[in-house]
Write a structure and sequence with these properties.
With 142 residues, the chain is mainly alpha-helical. It contains five helices and no strands. It has helices spanning 7-41, 45-67, 69-72, 84-87, 122-141.
Length: 142
């Protein structure tokens, strides 16, 4: 991908990556803090243990994103989270002159995303579980 991007586009992508890493990791830290706070102040017994387990899983997810996620990425994949072409697509078919694309976007994928990766979709599972705990606390305090 870098060989078809201009220097300016590469610079913008680097800035975007830097912000994504910073705010993505901060979001996971905040999510872990919420779970830890609820576990220490509001929840009892099994719910407290579930909250502590979520904190550990969130921190493991953060380590996964820091150390392993980049190894999952490839130019084209049947796993949507791994497919750079899908992530960087402008949603349009490739132009006749396919030597470069505007705004550093790839053309739309020519394949289906039919597979999934448990590690890469862990964030969705965690967010739903945290949401469940927050809603449970909210309903019990009402």
């Amino acid at each position: 991908m870098l060989d078809i991007m201009t220097n300016s586009q590469q610079h913008l992508m680097a800035a975007l990556d830097s912000n994504e890493v910073k705010y993505g990791w901060e979001t996971l830290d905040h999510l872990a803090s919420v779970c830890q706070y609820l576990g220490n102040t509001t929840l009892l017994g099994d719910e407290r243990a579930q909250s502590n387990d979520l904190v550990q899983r969130i921190m493991s997810l953060k380590q996964f994103y820091r150390n392993e996620y980049a190894d999952h990425l490839c130019k084209s994949s049947h796993v949507a989270e791994h497919c750079r072409q899908h992530a960087m697509s402008n949603g349009k078919a490739a132009p006749e002159d396919s030597s470069s694309w505007p705004f550093a976007c790839f053309p739309k994928c020519d394949h289906e995303h039919t597979a999934s990766c448990e590690s890469c979709s862990e964030h969705e599972v965690l967010y739903m579980e945290v949401r469940g705990i927050v809603l449970q606390v909210k309903s019990s305090s009402a």
